[in-house]
Amino acid sequence: MHRTRILDHVILLIGVFIMVAPVVVAFMTSTHEAAEIHRNGLSLNWGGHFAETYETVLTRQGGFTGKITGFNMVMNSMILGLGFAVGKIVLSMLAAYAIVYFRFPLATFFFWVIFTTLLLPLEVRILPSYEVMNMLKLTNTYTGLIVPLLASATGTFYFRQFFKSVPDELLEAARIDGAGPFKFFVDVLVPLSRTMMAAIFIIMFVYGWNQYLWPTLMTTDEGFFTLVRGIKQILLVWVGSQIPDYNEALALAILAMLPPVMVVVIFQRWFIKGLTESDK
Amino acid sequence: MAAETEGLSASRGGAGFGGHRLGALRLFGGKAKRGETSAKRVQFTSRFLPYLFLAPQLAIIFIFFYWPSVQAIQSSFYLEDPFGFGSTFVGLSNYTDVLKSGEYRGIARFTAIFTALVTFFALSIGLLLAVKADGVIRGNAAYKTLLIWVYAIAPPVAGLIGMMFFDQHIGPIVEIARWFGWDIKVGLDFGDTAFAMTVVSVWKQIPYNFIFFLSGLQGIPVSVREAAAIDCRSGLRRFWTIILPLLAPTAFFLLIINITYALFDTFGVIDVMVKDKAANNPITLVYKVYMDGFRGNDLGGSSAQSVILMVIVFVLTIFQFRFIERRVHYN
Which domains, ranges and CATH numbers included, belong to chain B? Predict the structure, then answer.
């Protein structure tokens, strides 16, 4: 009995090692100088150039146009992450409210129109989506970056499940008190959904921040690059150079993962709840 | 009974990152009952309010989902003039060209193997860690945090870190492999690149599976666990005969999520690793759509491939419902 417990811990520690070590090594290595990394390989000890490297990455103007900084990319990532999360919550709460709380002709039709989007991810229609964006002149805009990603019913599905679990008595009571649809939504449903909104916000923020394929297609102007989108540019620059800027590339990778990782770790309980218990 | 089965099959699911698949499962499973669409006994009746609330969502879905989807299907039947002078209807020839091409078949074969490997390893490692984490009492919370946080790392960022570990000059994995006489050349050797891609893709997906398996395990009632412990003294047998069947709905849901992940979400990992030089490198079907559409400017061919992918996703959704779910054990 006792031995199996130790074995359990050994397996878990190996798992933790595999999941954590690569990122720790990436961080530690990013504090060394490029030439040193080139000579000695990745390292596990502190290099002492943390401040310089991260300051350079965040503030040095670079790229094709010579104007884009790491800080610009952080801001763009924030705009994408926050815009996507807020947009998702607003759109899907309204739609779910209409679906669950209203009786109207065509309700079933719209229900299927909305939920069919769950069947096909954006990846299978990238080219025509791009053409549509071109036609609407939305490439290289924040609208073009965020709005097409909202065209799926994940959030609506989420809120529909939640609204369905809200007791009917609440609506009956509200109606007796003379509350209309707007009042009921703002005074009853929104406050009730707070935890739900927080959980969805976290998941959607991480999802938006981490988008890669769509931003790659939509943004050719470096002023709109997000951190995750910028990763490839770094690697392309690398190929030709004598001593690649390993330190700066790794520093950008660390910056690109920091906000979503922090959100997930700090709000872990909400995050897991939102992810696994959507229908309670 | 039908309702109960439906509820149970769903209770471990989620609607987050890949959760749209689950949503689809539940809605399109054929078990949706009459009246499934409206849930409340009491409802508001209003002439225009529901449309007002639905309008923003519907507008976005029509412009950015239905319009491009219809366009994809339409342009898959046309041949676009390379100089932009209109297009000609060519019937199914884009499809036959694609399906006859040896290159496409090779990529399809690679995608299938890659998907199978990623799904298998990500699921089994996730399950193993979840079972162990569920078993230990000391350090439970710490293990959990440390095992899930990689979920928040974007695939291309994971790819970049992977590239460092598989780098010719500084990569520790390359160095270790050298001791065994294996000279890893990511980006140059097909097999080596495929290996690196698979490792990074599995690594990135383990936390997701871990979260769901762990919450599935913690959902098993204590009484069932106690009864199982009395009936079945061998831990391993108890796992195979009691715990695993109870986890089947979770595992089944995750199977589909992982397949979709390997097909679509690994794009970032692949893009970072092959860097637009797909010549001798392994790529998946989605990457091929991207290469043909955006690098090769083959609109018709790329659209036909998009439609083929749509069909695959569709079939997957229906298949898992009609065939696999029947065998999943619920009680």
Answer: 2-66 (no CATH), 93-327 (1.10.3720.10)
